[in-house]
Write a structure and sequence with these properties.
about 15% helix; alpha+beta; 3-stranded mixed β-sheet
Length: about 80
């Protein structure tokens, strides 16, 4: 059995809680976030993983600063 491991760019969102099957608009300004969106559009068909940031005041979140559950989104 072959196992294929794929990874998607991730975008930490703050101040919102994305809901499946709904359209949302977010402001993106952090350099890593812009790169994640560009990578998503170039190599992943616009698919991206949205991760909710626990504390919106943290400018550079670590894994501990993000909720355990994310959302697959299409840009």
């Amino acid at each position: 059995m072959d196992i294929i491991i794929n990874s998607l760019p991730a975008l930490a969102v703050r101040g919102i809680c994305p809901i499946p099957n709904s359209e949302i608009r977010i402001e993106v300004g952090r350099e890593n976030s812009i790169k994640a969106i560009e990578d998503s559009e170039k190599a992943n068909g616009g698919n991206i993983c949205l991760l909710i940031q626990k504390n919106p005041t943290i400018e550079v979140p670590s894994c501990d600063d993000l909720e355990n559950v994310g959302l697959l989104a299409k840009i």
